[in-house]
Amino acid sequence: MLAAAASVKPSAAAAAAATSKPAAFKPLHLPPLPAAVPRRPLSLAARPLYRQQDPLFVVSAARNDRGAAPPSATADGSRPVEVAAPAETARRAKIGVYFATWWALNVIFNIYNKKVLNAFPYPWLTSTLALAAGSAIMLASWATRIAEAPDTDVDFWKSLAPVAIAHTIGHVAATVSMAKVAVSFTHIIKSSEPAFSVLVSRFFLGEHFPAPVYFSLLPIIGGCALAAVTELNFNMIGFMGAMISNLAFVFRNIFSKKGMKGKSVSGMNYYACLSILSLVILLPFAFAMEGPKVWAAGWQKAVAEIGPNFVWWVAAQSVFYHLYNQVSYMSLDEISPLTFSVGNTMKRISVIVASIIIFHTPVQPINALGAAIAILGTFIYSQAKQ
Q1: CB 319 within 8 A of CB 133
Q2: What is the C-alpha to C-alpha distance for residues 318 and 312, in angstroms, rounded to an integer?
Q3: Residues 144-198: pLDDT tens digits?
Q4: Residues sharing a CB contact under 8 Å with residue 123, sequence separation 6 or more, in sequence order
Q5: Closest CA relative to residue 230, chosen from 362, 111, 379
């Protein structure tokens, strides 16, 4: 019986195990999904809207990738083939117009300024009249609402004070130089302004430049030195006036760029305020250096020799001085002080050529070579900066 009971238990256990084992999983077969159309990756090369070789169009495409609105579609729903950057194009055209106008006005000013100084060699009064004319023009424009008057405060005039001091020194020094030497020689010496700009930016502002920029200064300095040594009508006062003017105008440009940051005053109104403050600074020095008695005697002599045209010369040099500086400050809104110095130097090419033609200035070949080397150095400098 025990043996029979033992034989029954295993079979019962096996049956229980068989009943407790889970059923095998049967996979559920679903109908296949339709194949998805492969999506092309987004890239500039896959878009016909932008030309990859043009940097302006690449900038536009990059802006669209960041979520900017795409270019507007045409009436039939198609897209334009090319999308330019109108703001950047307009800005470059605006700067080009400023530079061309600035150079043309400067040529006219230098011609009349030299004519006045040849007949009336009093640079302090001539400088004062130029600032007075600009101040009167802008005050009249503000009074008649031709131009909107700037909203200034005490802090603005404090920040403008060092700019006005540098502007006054540079303006008078350049006029003294023009009274003593030829226009071409003054501007050949003043073409070394990039050298002053780099040195001042390096030692006073702590800016660093690549080695090609420093090497490009060598032909500028060497060319100016060669032109000075071979100048037929060399005058030390005229030479030093041009050098002092270079240094003063570099500081003026740097101070101007700093002073305009965070200010709501436009370049045109900024220079107007600068002219007014410079006039206030210059007036007492002009009376002390020359005085009304000297001016009256010199004026009578000039009018007797030249005639009524002399008065028109004085008016023209005063008005054009303000206009060319006003345009230059409007361009300074858009560019850096170093770029301003380069444009100022390239402007001197037209002034030098025009003055040599109009005043029949004798130029030796070695003197012309020095001027050409200095101008070439300016071009190399601009390329090194880029």
Answers
A1: yes
A2: 10
A3: 999 899 988 888 899 899 999 999 999 999 999 999 999 999 988 888 888 888 8
A4: 117, 172, 175, 176, 178, 179
A5: 362
What's the token pair of residue 266?
A: 């436009």
Distances (CA, A) of 17 to 26, 36, 80, 268: 21, 49, 77, 101
Residue 264 three-state SS: coil
Q: End-to-end alpha-carbon separation of the chain, Å?
A: 111
**What is the DSSP secondary-structure string of 306-348?**
H-THHHHHHHHHHHHHHHHHHHHHHHHTTS-HHHHHHHHHHHH
Torsion (CA) 96, 347, 260, 317 in degrees, nearest 10: -110
pLDDT for 91: 74
Distance between CA atoms of 259 and 228, rounded to whole angstroms? 35
Please compute Rg for the chain using Cα positions: 37
State the 10-residue block means of pLDDT for the chain, 386 residues long. 44 46 52 53 40 36 42 48 64 78 90 95 96 95 92 89 94 95 89 85 84 89 88 89 92 77 75 94 96 94 93 95 85 68 73 87 87 85 74
Among residues 330, 177, 162, the alpha carbon closest in space to that of 259 is found at: 162
User: Residue 127: which of 367, 325, 344, 364 has the closest Cα?
Assistant: 325
Neighbours of 286 (CB within 10 A): 21
Query: Using an 8 Å Cβ cutoff, are 133 and 323 in contact?
Result: no
Burial classification of residue 10, based on how many CB atoms lie within 10 Å of its CB (0-12 exposed, 13-18 middle, 19 or more buried): exposed
In eight-state DSSP terms, residue 261 is: T
DSSP single-letter state for residue 54: S
pTM of the model: 0.71
The 8-class DSSP code of residue 288 comes to H
Quick check: 353 and 346 in contact, CB under 8 A?
A: no
- Tokens in use for 109? 């000013």
**170: CB partners within 8 A, 6+ apart:** 244, 245, 246, 247, 248, 249, 252
Distance of CA 44 to the CA centre of its chain: 32
CB of 134 closer than 8 Å to CB of 320:
no
326-383: pLDDT as tens digits: 888 777 667 765 666 667 767 878 888 888 888 888 888 888 898 889 888 887 887 7
